[in-house]
Amino acid sequence: MDLLNEHGPLVLFFGFAIAHALADFPLQGDYLAREKVRAAARSGSTWVIALTAHSLIHAGAVWVVSGLPLLGAVELVLHWAIDWGKGEKRFGAVTDQLLHLACKAGYVLVLLSPIADSWLAS
Q1: 57-87, pLDDT tens digit by residue?
Q2: What is the full DSSP assignment across 40-108?
């Protein structure tokens, strides 16, 4: 929330986008990129672990940028679902990235709304 309060919504979105790029590319690695796709994974359990680990990296990035663990938990679920869809070939890489960035824009909008006051008050 410091980024939002001190620099505004565009800087917060940019922080989310940078964290996303780091988590989706250099921090993912070949192992997670392969094993998070069910059809390419060595086993069903490896697939679940890899997809969850990758999504947890993203959840941590959102938590660090926003300072809100609840937002990190939301990212965990949404990132897992989006990457599952891409892995199942329901859409391609461009749609995948646009959906992830739409989530980040949604987080900024939520944090700008009165809903955020109840999150921050607790």
Answers
A1: 999 999 999 999 999 999 999 999 999 999 9
A2: TSSSHHHHHHHHHHHHHHHHHHHHHHH--HHHHHHHHHHHHHHHHHHHTTSS-HHHHHHHHHHHHHHHH
What is the pTM for the complete model shown?
A: 0.91
Report helix angle 44-66 to 93-112, nearest 10.
40
* Burial class, 113, CB count within 10 angstroms (exposed 0-12 / middle 13-18 / buried 19+): exposed
| 30/7 Cα distance (integer angstroms) | 35
CA distance 88 to 80: 12
Q: In which residue are the tokens 């607790």 written?
A: 122
